[in-house]
Amino acid sequence: MIVIESDSRLSRRQDSSSGLRVQRRHPFFNFIWAIVLVAFATTLTIKSTVLSPKYVAQKVEQTSVMKSLATEINDDLNGAGVSQNLVTTGMVSTVFKTEVKSLLSGDETTDQTNQKIEAQFQQLVTNKAKTAGIDNQVSKTLVKTVANDLAKRFETKIQQKLSAYQNLYFQVNQYNFYLGVASVILTILMAVISILKHHFWRSLGPALFMAGILIAGLGVTVIINLPSFEASASQFEAQMMSTVGESSIVTLAFVGVMTGLVGLIVMLGHRVFRKS
């Protein structure tokens, strides 16, 4: 009996010490999983905001960036003898969105967009001729020629504005893609390991909670330091930071807060079900 009792005690001690070692490994495992989740959430947010042509164009439209670009282009056209201020912010937005796409892919502006802008200029020139009462004196060929020249000047102006950022933007897009793929693979791997070790919910909650805190902290830190970045940037860069950059960072911080809340709910739910 003494031998059996001693063996049972030894077995319980081994089990408890083994469980203690597993518990000690969990914080490190949870922290690694949290880092992976931070990378996943950050790359996904960047892809949906800064690297989304539609998002960038929509945010820029709400500010003075498009208006200032339209003014610059009209001034350039005025220097070429076109003094009617034909360019509108809507036209700038259309080309701006296409140029952002070309920056991401490394391709040139599509012919479809060229034709669309040229058609808009044709319509504008025709309307101006009608307003001036000289539409009968202007042939369609002349309108098309003038519109084509204006479209080229217009697109060249925007390309010059964005060309300085082409290599940087393209590289950021590539690195973000690689990091996103790696974070997805690692997230799946961590989930599989936790399932095989029978502590999925015990690890998922703390990992999400820590990831949420890290993401929100990252967003708040960048927002606090954003004015210093804007102060050392050009006017165009500062405008982009205060619109696209700021809204993207706020989105990232919101994702962090929601991730932390989900992690907290998972932790509380796991504790309640474990007790019951």
Order of helices and strands: HHHHHHHHH
Beta-strand percentage range: under 5%
Return the average pLDDT rounded to an integer.
Answer: 76
Query: What global shape is seen?
Result: elongated
Tell me the number of strands. Answer: 0
Percent of residues in helices comes to over 70%
Explain what you see:
The chain has 276 residues and is mainly α. It folds into 2 domains: 28-52 and 167-275, no CATH class; 64-166, no CATH class. Helices cover 86% and strands 0% of the residues. Helix 1 (2-48) packs antiparallel against helix 9 (235-275) and helix 7 (166-196) packs antiparallel against helix 8. The longest helix has 47 residues, at 2-48. It starts with a helix and ends with a helix. The relative contact order is 0.13. Keywords: Membrane, Transmembrane, Transmembrane helix. The chain crosses the membrane at residues 28-46, 175-196, 208-229, 249-269.
